[in-house]
Write a structure and sequence with these properties.
The chain has 254 residues and is an alpha/beta fold. The protein contains ten helices and nine strands.
């Protein structure tokens, strides 16, 4: 699976946008910055950081960032995008094997945009994250909501047998645009996510539905974007609507 994901992102990297003004990423950026410690310069791992969309605002605030990425092509784009920042290091690796990173060495580990879904073994990724975090450090990530993704794809397309299969397993085959080959994504229920974090010794500090008003890929077409972002930030705290959210956002602590 690791090779499939690496090959997939090597192929899409050429046309991959930095999403600087994408509404959903502006919402994610808000919650990242809002949930990291404010009083000191941090050492942050942006694991599976792609081309550096979420590393850049952290670098601008003076934090030390290590960006890791499985795809060489995505990593090269990140290096080019962030070449003016001296406080970043780049490493090619998988989040399920970060053996070159020392124990207890990071204040914050980020895995944004379904890295845990794509990595092949989310328990190994969580174990590695726990190992490299300092005591009291924070694990901040987003994962896909299994029901929303199966509802908006298999169910919407009328493939009810595939819907029943995928809603049971959580495993879906992902292909973007004109790509001939994709990869498996394991998507989560809320309880599955909570149980995995608890099993891997994390204390859950926050669990939010940051896209519980509209689908994340619909947002760039809405009117009054600034007002919508404020409204979604407010509504993300509403636990009664968390299962409406396309992604779950969590903050957990070692």
């Amino acid at each position: 699976m690791v090779k499939e994901v690496e090959s997939f992102y090597d192929k899409v990297a050429e046309n991959y946008s930095d999403h600087e003004d994408r509404v959903c990423d502006r919402i994610v950026e808000h919650f990242i910055l809002d949930n990291i410690p404010k009083s000191k310069t941090l050492k942050i791992l942006d694991a599976g950081g792609g081309i550096g969309r979420f590393s850049e605002p952290l670098l601008k605030k003076g934090h030390q960032v290590v960006l890791t990425e499985l795809s060489n092509e995505m990593l090269n784009k990140a290096k080019n995008k962030l070449k003016s920042y001296p406080n970043i290091k780049f490493i090619k690796n998988s989040v399920t094997d970060m053996s070159e990173l020392a124990d207890d060495s990071f204040d914050v580990v980020l895995m944004i945009n379904a890295i845990l879904d794509y990595c092949g073994d989310y328990n190994k990724a969580m174990q590695e994250t726990y190992r490299i975090l300092k005591k009291g450090g924070f694990f901040i990530a987003t994962v896909n909501n299994k029901f929303i993704y199966c509802k908006s794809h298999e169910l919407w397309e009328g493939d009810y047998e595939l819907f029943k299969k995928n809603i049971k397993s959580g495993d879906r085959y992902i292909v973007w645009g004109r790509q001939e080959k994709g990869h498996i994504s394991h998507e989560f229920t809320l309880n599955e996510l909570k149980n995995a974090l608890n099993k891997n010794r994390f204390q859950i500090k926050k669990m939010l539905g940051i896209f519980n008003l509209m689908g994340k890929y619909e947002l760039d077409d809405i009117k009054n974007k600034e007002e919508f972002i404020k409204l979604q930030i407010e509504c993300a705290e509403l636990q009664e609507y968390i299962n409406n959210s396309q992604d779950f956002f969590f903050v957990a602590q070692k």
